[in-house]
Specification:
This protein is of the alpha/beta class. 37% of the residues lie in helices and 14% in strands. A seven-stranded mixed β-sheet has the order 5-4-3-6-7-9-8, with helices on both faces. Helix 4 links the parallel strand 4 and strand 5. The two termini are 22 Å apart. The structure holds S-adenosylmethionine (SAM). The site of S-adenosylmethionine (SAM) has 21 residues, from helix 3 and strand 4. One of its GO terms (molecular function) is methyltransferase activity. It catalyses: cytidine(1402) in 16S rRNA + S-adenosyl-L-methionine = N(4)-methylcytidine(1402) in 16S rRNA + S-adenosyl-L-homocysteine + H(+). InterPro entries: RsmH, SAM-dep_MeTrfase_MraW_recog, SAM-dependent_MTases_sf. Pfam families: Methyltransf_5 (PF01795). It is found in: Cytoplasm.
């Protein structure tokens, strides 16, 4: 898909809440879901209405408590303050703007920094755009898939390579996307089987279930959901759709309860967890987008610039790990005692393995329980694209 890079202008629709929530908390099933949970509310989050948006207030009035915000700022700080302590002249790309929590943190902490926020979801752009309007031209929102970084930078008058100081990815779906029942991301409420982050995408989750052949369905469930019962589920889907096509999340959840054997239903979370993840990844081409976006992000940062990525499921984290391993590898042939000039690693690691949230952060922000954070810094100019 060619990313559409246009400035947002959509109004914020009102939140629709789950009509029949399952008894267990949704976060247990959606490792990468950040929704306003009962636990957030128990922890003292207040509900406000702002511009028609139903939000919880813990660190701010926009519901979505940013995951590992302090750590992200700490990791980006040295890159942003190289020329001025207030970040003047530094540019950050927030590749997953969402509700704008991380962007707001950066804009507040460094009054000279400029943030370019990307999102493919026009309602996220509208929400964050309203939230961050007070920062004036220090904040620019661009509607694009995050692998459209180069086009987004061009729109802002910046080069595709060596033009920014930091890039931040906070992958997955946002609280807002999950909470808007009608978008069909959550199996805890009955809704149309949609799951498009960008409402202009051509294929919905229902289209996949109703039209893909069995081999394609098995591949999606297995490769994007790591679902052990992919074959059984695909067979059940084909049988059901022959009499009545899928339209709603509840129909799919019901089928999954029937198709997945009882012993497997009792372990590994909700039986719909993996299938919903798989369909969402397929509808939004999430992994392809990430595979293309990471090299573009690495190319975009100047020497000393940093790329920080937070993943919430293993398929994404594996991609991040592999791309970062390549970027930090030396090209000096093995066995030579010194680095050959021009062959040294392009990037260095800022994190040892994947960092996790500590118990205090998880207690404060249950969404951080699944996070894996990895970060690198550009060490050399090598890799001129
Ligand atoms: C977890 S939320 C980000 C939350 C944000 N950091 C905050 O503090 O409010 C992830 C956002 O990334 C967006 N997104 C996911 N995949 C994307 C892609 N391939 N391209 C652009 N945006 C994407 C989603 O629409 C969602 O709004």
């Amino acid at each position: 898909m060619k990313p559409s890079a246009t400035l947002f202008d959509e109004p914020v629709p009102a939140v629709a809440r789950a009509s029949w929530p399952l008894p267990e908390p949704a976060l247990a099933y959606f490792p990468n879901a950040r929704s306003v949970s009962d636990r957030d509310l128990d922890a003292g989050a207040a509900i406000h209405l702002r511009g028609g948006v139903d939000v919880a207030d813990q660190q701010g009035p926009f519901g979505h408590v940013p995951v590992l915000l302090d750590r992200c700022i700490e990791l980006l700080a040295p890159a942003l303050t190289r020329t001025a302590a207030d970040g003047a002249g530094a540019v950050v790309v927030d590749a997953t703007l969402g509700a704008g929590g991380h962007s707001e943190g950066l804009l507040r902490r460094y009054p000279g920094v400029r943030v370019i926020g990307l999102d493919r979801d026009p309602s996220a752009l509208a929400l964050a755009g309203g939230r961050l309007a007070g920062f004036g031209d220090r904040f620019t929102a661009v509607r694009t898939r995050y692998d459209g970084i180069a086009d987004a930078l061009a729109q802002s008058g910046l080069a595709a390579t060596r033009s920014v100081d930091g890039v931040l990815f906070d992958l997955g779906v946002s609280s807002m996307q999950l909470d808007r029942t009608e978008r069909g991301f959550s199996y805890s409420a009955d809704a149309p089987l949609d799951m498009r982050m960008d409402p202009d995408l051509p294929v919905t989750a229902a289209d996949i279930l109703n039209t893909y052949d069995k081999a394609a369905l098995v591949a999606i469930l297995r490769d994007f959901g790591e679902e052990r019962h992919a074959g059984r589920i695909a067979t059940a889907v084909l049988r059901r759709r022959a009499s009545s096509p899928f339209t709603s999340t509840a129909e799919l959840v019901e089928l999954l309860y029937e198709a997945i054997p009882a012993p497997a239903r009792r372990t590994g979370g909700h039986p719909a967890k993996r299938t919903f993840q798989a369909l969402r990844v397929a509808v939004n081409a999430e992994l392809d987008s990430l595979r293309a976006a990471l090299p573009a992000a690495l190319a975009a940062v100047r020497v000393g610039g940093r790329v920080v990525v937070m993943s919430y499921q293993s398929l994404e984290d594996r991609i991040v790990k592999n791309v970062f391993a390549g970027a930090t590898a030396s090209r000096t042939p093995p066995g030579l005692p010194v680095e050959l000039p021009g062959h040294e690693p392009e990037f260095s690691f800022l994190t040892r393995g994947a960092e996790r949230a500590d118990t205090e952060e998880i207690e404060r922000n249950p969404r951080s329980a699944a996070v894996r954070l990895r970060a690198v810094e550009r060490a050399t100019e090598r890799g001129q694209e």
